[in-house]
Amino acid sequence: MPLIPRELEPMLLERARAYPAVTLTGPRQSGKSTLVREAFPDYDYVSLEDIDMRELAHDDPRSFLQRYSNHVILDEVQRVPELFSYMQRVMDERNEPGQFILSGSQNFLLLNSISQSLAGRVAILHLLPLSYTELTHAGETPSNDEFVFRGGYPRLYSSLATPADFYPGYVATYIDRDVRAELGVKKIDSFNRFLTLAALRIGEVMNVSHLADEADVDSATIRNWLSILNASFIAFQLQPYYRNYGKRLVKSAKLYFYDTGLAANLLGIESADQLFASQCRGALFENAVVLEIVKQYQAQGKEPKLYYWRDSGQKEVDLIIERGGNPYFVIEIKSSATYRPKYFETLDDIAEAMGVPTERRFVVYGGEETIPTRHGTVIGLRDIGRLVR
C-alpha cells in the first residue's frame, strides 16, 4: 500500500519554519521516522539507535555536532541526553529556524532533557498511530470493529503483518527496551499482568487500590506504572471535570489506551468478529472515539482539554471538550449502530446545567449516518472532525 499521508505534516513543516528545533514524539512504530524523512528529504538523517553513531555522539558530542550541526534529523535522540546542552550552543550561535528535527519514543526522557537544555528553542509535536480519518482519506475505510480491532500502527496497513503477529512482538520489545532498560521496572512479569488488567479497565473509573491488589503490588507501584504507560505512549488518563455545578463529583481518572488494537490484543480478542461479540466492545469503541479526538487535535499541534463527568448520583457523560475555560462540547459515546433517543437523556441534563446549547451536544455512535435531532446531533466515526474544528 502507498505511504499514507499524515495530517501532522503541515504543522511539522510550519513549526520548523519558526523554531530552531522541532521535536516529534510518540509511540514506537507510530511512523515518526517515516514522517520526518518524508517531510525533510534534504536533511541528513542520523539514527541514534545505531550503536556506532550513538557511541560517537556519546564519546565526542562536540565533533558529532560539528558534523551534524544544521538541517539534520536526529532519531531516538533521547538515547544520548548529553547532546542537548551542546545543541543549545549550536542553535544560539546560528539563530536559524529548522536546524534540528528531533524524534524519540520515550516521552519522559526526551522532554526531561529538553526542559533542562532547550526550553524556548524547540517546538514539541506528537505523532500517534494512524487515525480513522487518515485511513479514510487514503482510501482505506475499515468498519468500526475492524478499525478498533486492528488499531492504527502503520505496519499493519503497509505490510502483511496481522495484529496476532504484530502486537505480541510489540509488547515484548516495549517491555524489554523501554520498561526494563530505560525506566528501571524490575518486576516485568507483574508489569505485564498489570498491562492486561489496565486493558480490562478501559473507560472505567480507576480504583488504584483494587488494581494494586490484582497485580500483587502496592499502590505506589501502580501509580508509578501508570506514569510509565503515559510516558511511553501506551495509555493515558482522562480526568473528571473539575467544576461541580452544585454536584459532588467523582475525582478519580479513567484509563484509555493510545491504540485500541494493542488493548484488544492484550484482552485476547483475535478478530473483528470476535470483538463484535465481546463484552469489551463498548469500552473499546469509546476508547477509539476519545483517541480519534486526541489524534485530530494533536495533528493541529494542540493539546485537547478533555474530561468526563460523573456525579455522586451516578449521572455520567463520556466526554466534555473544554474551550476558553468553559465546556464547549458535551458528548455521549455508544457503540451501537442504532440510534435511540434515550442516549440524550443524561447528556441533556448535564449540558443544560453547563449552559451548552443543543448545537454543541453530540452522540457518537457506531452507525454511519449523521442524524440531527431536537436534542443534538448524532454522528459516526467519520464525522469526528466536527468536534475538533
UniProtKB/TrEMBL annotation:
One family from Pfam that matches here is DUF4143
Which residue intervals define the domain DUF4143 in the entry?
176-336
- Superkingdom of origin organism: Bacteria
Domain AAA, by residue range, is: 20-135
PANTHER family for the chain:
CONSERVED PROTEIN, DUF4143 DOMAIN-CONTAINING PROTEIN
Please identify the protein, giving its name as recorded.
ATPase (AAA+ superfamily)-like protein
